[in-house]
Amino acid sequence: MSDDILREVDEAMRVEKAIGFWRDHGQAIMAVIALIVLGTALHAGWKAWTFEQNQAQTGRFLEAFKSEDPAAALRKVADEPKGNVKAIAGLAAAGIAADKEEWDAAIALYTKVAADPSSPALFREQAIVQATAIKMDHQKDANGQALLDELAPVVKLEADKSMWAGRAKLLSALIKANKMDDVEGALAEVRAIVSMKGVSADVLGQAQMLEEVYTVRMKEKKS
Q1: Do residues 176 and 189 touch, judged by C-beta distance below 8 A?
Q2: Opening angle at CA 32, ends 50 and 47, nearest 5
Q3: Which residues are CB-contacts of 135 (< 8 A; sequence separation ≥ 6)?
Q4: Helix, strand, coil percentages for the chain (3-state, nearest 5)
Q5: Minimal CA–CA distance to 86: which of 97, 99, 75, 94?
Q6: Distance between CA atoms of 14 and 9, rounded to whole angstroms?
Q7: DSSP class of residue 82?
Q8: Residue 75, exposed/middle/buried by CB under 10 A (0-12, 13-18, 19+)?
Q9: Reduced to 3 states, what is the DSSP secondary structure of residue 135?
Q10: Residues of the chain with pLDDT under 50
């Protein structure tokens, strides 16, 4: 009997405390709940809006390829404020320019993608590597150290974190060997690629081939 009374008293005290807590903090609690609900609604709305924007951009991207001048149409899509498709359009337009051997235009388009913070990291890394490769091959006055500086953000990445890291290191080796006559540095770069985890098979094969070439060149320089 006494246990029942004690339980009732304890329950009454808990109810009274709850009522008092709600009286003191009820408005704040309701405000937090409202913010959570509003935040959830805004997040859902943002995702829906982003999806619609990407769909619209994708449509314009596909239409650009069907146009009479795909390169010009793709550049228009690449000029849109932001979005994954914008970056893809920029890369595609740069690729077309490179195919036409319009090197300056290709470099400008790749550079634009690389400098755009709204572009996904993967696309920015690709743009850096592609632009640097064109400069090395087609700009006779390109400075080796300047090219290495441009590549640096991708070179420092691990191959299992970026699919362009291995190719950036390979390009770094080529720049050192061909632009700076630093065969020893180039050899160190390709050996680093051979020991990397996650590097693609084609990059690994090229690195192994260059390792043999640079080893021979090192022996020739020392003899």
Answers
A1: yes
A2: 5
A3: 107, 142, 147, 150
A4: 80, 0, 20
A5: 75
A6: 9
A7: S
A8: buried
A9: helix
A10: 1-6, 8-9, 12-13, 15, 18-19, 21-22, 29, 32-52
SS (H, E, C) 197-221: CCCCHHHHHHHHHHHHHHHHHHHHH
DSSP code, position 139: -
Would you state the structure tokens that stand for residue 94, as one six-digit string?
């740069």
Are 83 and 108 in contact by the 8 Å Cβ rule? The answer is no
Phi, psi angles (nearest 5°) of residue 116: -90, 110
Q: What is 142-203 written as a DSSP string?
A: --HHHHHHHHHHHHTS-TTT-TTHHHHHHHHHHHHHHHS--HHHHHHHHHHHHT-SS--HHH
Q: What is the pLDDT of residues 117-144, one digit of tens each?
A: 888 898 899 999 999 999 999 998 899 9
Nearest Cα residue to 112 out of 149, 138, 134, 86: 86
- Cα 204 to its chain centre, rounded Å, is 22
